[in-house]
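Internal QA ticket QA-208
Title: Verify multi-chain structure generation after dependency bump
Assignee: T.L.

Test input:
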Amino acid sequence: MQALRNIGIIGRITMLEGARKQVFHVLLMVAVVMIFGSTVLAHFDDKVQAKMLADLSLASMFFVSAAIAITITVTGVPGEMEQKTVYPVLAKAVTRSQFVLGKFAGAMGTVAIGMAVMALAFVFVEWWFLAGHIDFAVLYVVPFLFLETAILAAISLALSTVCSWPLAWFLSVIVCLVGNVKFQLYASLMAKHPTPFNKIAISGFYHVLPSLESFNFKDALVHHLTVPNVYLWQTALYGLCYTAAMLTLASISFRRREL
Amino acid sequence: MTETAIHIAGFRKEYPAARRKEMRLAVNNLDLDVPAGGLFGFLGPNGAGKTTTIKMLLGFIPATLGEASLFGVPVEDPAARRAVGYLPEQPYFHKFLTAQEVVAAHVGFAGAHGRAAKEQTEALLRRVGAYDYRTLRLSKCSKGMVQRVGLATALAGDPKLLIMDEPSSGLDPIGRKELRALLQELKDEGKTLFISSHLLSEMESLCDRVAVLHQGELVACGTPGEITRGDDEIAVLLDGLDETESLAREIATLGGSLARQPETRGSRLVAPAAALYRVMGLLEQRKARVISVSQRHETLEDAFLRLVGSTGH
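Actual output:
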């Protein structure tokens, strides 16, 4: 119980810090402007307009949420170490794992606030410009976007405990981009480099990198497709397991760091 | 039998030097036992290894060799820090938080919640004199104000052991006086205070025991009375001595010394107070003109300088 309380306190402080950062406000404004900006496509017919609106809005939501999550997590632990604010906290009976989990919880809390604002903006724009039409698929599309962001945040956090924050930021962005085109990239590389060694290496990377594309239900929302419940549960479980694995790695790595 | 608050056995810490192939020794073969209750002064010049030792005690860095425990619990176990309050030399807190938010967080880490946490936070803020600016963000507070907040966080959870690194750093004379009173109060409550400080005159009046660290090694440990030279000294200023060599030899046999002072064209004689009458007899024989005679007791500062050298290197 005390462990959860410690995580909660660290999370709250991280959230307050994240929410006060100017970069958070700027990114959020950019996303909201992009969501409202997608209404300039009003000269298309209703179907195209709805598709473009959903496409642009969800893409903006993902990239802005990912940017917030990566920025906060990648600078969180190194920032605390640099400013030495980690000392008074770890001088109490707070474990390093609790500290890492608290930083993650705080970052995801900040992302949740941002995502809620963007989702509300999206629903409002849909309702206003599409004559009262609201697609309730957004209720599962947004939580899966959140889970995708959680995976990225956990990877960034783990990277920030082993390398400098600029490098961790760069690698996180690479993981974000590659993770979203993993299936196509895998097929293409396998076809171009069919030697056994390359196949093993490509296959290894394929299994280690997160399948971020699996969390993208934008097409289902746009084209009104029904996603089977089993697939949703499997994807959610995969996301949770991947996040947990990354947080475990981050905790182990941070435990070994000299402060 | 007295409980041991801090037990250190064979602590050694090596850091990679600027050239990665070499190692720099920060602490070497440190053995120390701090009894529970009372104020323990941890003294040493800059770079002596005091902060490194504190960091190892709090589990921030692992020791290269050796082990330590706090009230019998190994320092590697986070549970060892349940009984500890820590005040770093510089107050390291998030500047965007208010004094109240910072103290409340630490009260929470110490296990209190709900109404009890709120009451404890207020009581701590009052105790360190930070209550009046509790709603002010730390970015708007002075160094002394933040140091008081730091004290409140160290006291959160009513710890049995307080580890403080230069606690009076940043405090004005009034703040220092209040801090001395607070340290005395905590000592009277039976808490163990482990304080690293350069303010030796303050330490001398407050400390029950002190340890002096120099170049990573323990050079002295005991009560201030044990560390300072027990015998008082006399210092005699002389004028116009023609021949000092034979007198210097005789003074040396009494355990003293005689040195010329070119700037006054006189000499300064230092000898144990017990040899006063014999020294005066020798001076009378030589018809030396005595300008002044003074008696002095070695202070902790004198002992510190004697042990580590006046430059600290």
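Spot checks passed. The mean pLDDT of chain B is 85.
Status: verified.
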